[in-house]
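thought: fold this chain, then report.
action: predict
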Amino acid sequence: MDRGWRVRHPSPDGLRSTLVSKLTDVPKRILIGRALRSDRLGETLLPKRVALPVFASDPLSSVAYAPGEVLLVLSIAGLSAYHFSPWIAVAVVVLMFTVVASYRQNVHAYPSGGGDYEVATTNLGPRAGLTVASALLVDYVLTVAVSISAGIENLGSAIPFVVENKVACAVGVIVLLTLMNLRGVRESGTLFAIPTYVFVAGVFLMIAWGAFRGVVLGDDMRAPTADFEIKPEHPGLAGFALVFLLLRAFSSGCAALTGVEAISNGVPGFRKPKARNAATTLAMMGLLAVTMFCGIIALAAATDVRMAENPGRDLVHNGVPLGPGYVQDPVISQVAEAVFGHGSFLFMILAAATALVLFLAANTAYNGFPLLGSILAQDRYLPRQLHTRGDRLAFSNGIVLLAGAAVLLVWIYGADSTRLIQLYIVGVFVSFTLSQTGMVRHWNRLLGAEKDPAARRRMVRARAINAFGAFFTGLVLVVVLLTKFTHGAWVALLGMCIFYATMTAIRRHYDRVAEEIAAPDAPSEDTVRPSRVHSVVLVSKVHRPALRALAYAKLLRSDTLEALSVNVDAEETRALREEWERRGIDVPLKVLDSPYREVTRPVIEYVKSLRAQSPRDVVSVIIPEYVVGHWYEHFLHNQSALRLKGRLLFTPGVMVTSVPYQLESSEAAKLRARRRQNWSAPGSVRRGPAERTKDTSPRT
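observation:
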């Protein structure tokens, strides 16, 4: 059997394995698309018309559920509290414009894509940056969970099967979105653009037609819940209790601001001029979101929409509670039914677009999370695999990690958007506040060195915008913490702490490893040549693997060479000695006694004794191993070798070498390896395929 070095030529088996690998690669290429060369990264950059739905789908789609969250909270005090909803909308609008104006300064000052993390790290220090990163990572996961769950609930109002299987349907949508994003940012953005624009156009048409019917035609538009009464949980709230309720409603309405920071994190994904295009997209997003949010709030008031946190108990019709079987439709669905008419073509189009855009709103997180993860991995706060681009030049590992975390949340919370949204917002306002505070320090630093009056005026204006943004978002953060902490915000804070601790530990590990393996300036034991090399070949029987290991050991030309065996069975040891002498093998055979039938400990103690005799020497332990092709064969072979290697790796001054011997079954493993060569996992390390393969096992 010739198992030496040789060039392999194509064989029928090789041709079959190549065909199989091509066939197994087809499903991946259908789902994800063909791999793109690294030099085609520029082709994935986005124009503004595509960047808007890609990076701003979350704040645009949040108008589908943010108004409903405001009314749900106000319903605690009954219908009398509904007249506060326009004032809450005004407060949300002021906050939205403040945040958008502030982030336009961020985009121009830090166009590299680090966003809030880079701003906080540069101006406030690594701890502040890591706090922002933790908050954003939690918020991105929640964005996917909340958006998908809200979309499932909107779709469930028309399709009962979806409501009955909420979790399974939500997980299915997350898997589908993951596959779409694995195809690449540009391609997924094109797919997402159409439903996003249909949704925006539908909402604006609903607002315009509703205003025309109500103001010009004087029609009496009534929502399907207009005749219901609300049984308040706490009637007659006044004073501090009322103020607290209004603040809680305001914090729920702030869900409309989630995702605003994604544009500042995604500046590298824009076409040139990147900063200007990102700032323009940010302004467009703010204007559209504000208009739609205010329009839906106004139409909800005009059509007498009724919402309750527990509709089966708190919504009453003719003095009778609606009961647990009642399904409460979202505000936007009720308003659309009042304006367009139930079952009308425009109503169906808007309902479908709303459900679809809520699903696609998760795309904001699918673009923000992997990019932020890549930056954190580059800074050694996350595993380096997150910095690797996949087949389609997307950060595939980050996309898969985000999907897994979102699926876990959806499963834990039963795809209930009302429960999930209580966890929301905290993280994003932590990043808002720290980012704007960092921008104030950024402008202070630049003003200290700038002498040009015109430039100073621009900087002073930008600093004033960021200072107001820091104050306002900090105030909202306090409100959110006070009003939402016991309702679930503590879970988000706990998640932030876990991310912070994990990233700190990862950075500490990478720093410690880098310090340990750094090349020294002065000579050390790692650079000084050892005095001698003692080679020890472990043998149990005289067979092909042992003979190959001995032949390889002779090639090393060590100072000393010996074969080592452990006596655990007297008959086998006697047979080994006789065969050794019969063959006349010119390598000394040393047998270690083991009265307790152990193999690992005698070998370790012997190797340590060699080191103790001469600490400047190196011991090379050579272990013959079987190469098998089936998973179950690993349990039948190489167990002693694995235990020995595991112990020897922790012994200083000992080098461990495995000499493989390929059994016939290893052909199956070789076939699987060839398949994997062409079917790489997302983000895996890639090497150019060799035209010829070489068997590097030594001749015997």
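thought: worth noting. The CA atoms of residues 59 and 284 lie 11 Å apart.
final: tokens above.
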